[in-house]
Amino acid sequence: MRIGVDLGGTKIEIVALDRAGAILLRRRIPSPSGDYDAIVDAIGSLVESAEAELGARGSVGIGTPGSPSPRTGTMRNANSTVLNGKPLVRDLERRLDREIRVENDANCFALSEASDGSAAGATCAFGAILGTGVGGGIVVRGELLAGANGIAGEWGHAPVPWPRAEEIPGPHCYCGKRGCIETVLSGPGFARDHIANGGTERTAPEIVAAARAGDGAARASLERYLDRLARALASIVNVLDPDVIVLGGGMSNVEEIYAELPARLGAYVFSDTLATRIVPAAHGDSSGVRGAAWLWPLA
């Protein structure tokens, strides 16, 4: 049995999978806010409760914001900043008395979709999260590509490519830089951009709905978003040239992305053709937790 845990900013989800990948158990609880010890305890309790209910002990993989540093073993780059600098892997291994595998949540998402989702069978797949943050993961021939520094796929903290004059220097990012892709392509970034360009305060889904209803400011905000997403993903295509890009996170539900993005990419991709498919995740918002379980091969 494989157990996967998805540690998010607002919720912690656990799933247990059988040998064929079918879900045996799935549960969500709210994430403890700003309390590292409570997060460790919540994850430990979820795993222990699931194993007691199913009567079996499983391997445990965990998807987190950020990732463990290969140098120190402590967490870094997490937008849930309470995790940064903490020995999450060591503390969970001590709590659960077994080896734990921890990967960035976007890596888990990409692995899930490449294993049995929208990118199944692809030689090279890029999984892109467009949620409260922006992350990415790369799977090549079914294997997760972590990279020498453990940051492969972290496109969200690259600058927006081919920036317009009005986009420079760009919004501040929690990472300390300005103009990161995450600051404009995340759901909150999209909403902030709408306000900064004369729109009223609305959630990302509300802006999209207003754009469809003919609101001029909302449509302009959606146009900026689609153009920036085209530029950002074109840079991925130009470097990685994946067979498929799978989108997840709340903004991946915007239908205009799949209708309009392929034509927009042509202006930025360094090719006379575009064979890369842009598709939504097959497993929706549970893809990351399934991917965490897939971090362990079958015994």
**Tally of DSSP helical segments:** 9
In the CATH hierarchy, the architecture of the largest domain is: 2-Layer Sandwich
The named CATH superfamily of the largest domain: ATPase, nucleotide binding domain
| Binned strand content | 15-25%
- For the termini, the CA-CA separation is 9 Å
The shape, in one word, is globular
**What's the CATH topology label of the largest domain?**
Nucleotidyltransferase, domain 5
How many beta-strand runs?
12
Order of helices and strands: EEEHEEEHEHEEEHHHHEHEH
| Overall pLDDT score | 95
The description of the largest β-sheet is: 5 strands, mixed
CATH class term of the largest domain: Alpha Beta
Low-pLDDT windows of residues = none
Structural class: alpha/beta
Strand order of the largest sheet: 3-2-1-4-7
The figure for the number of domains is 2
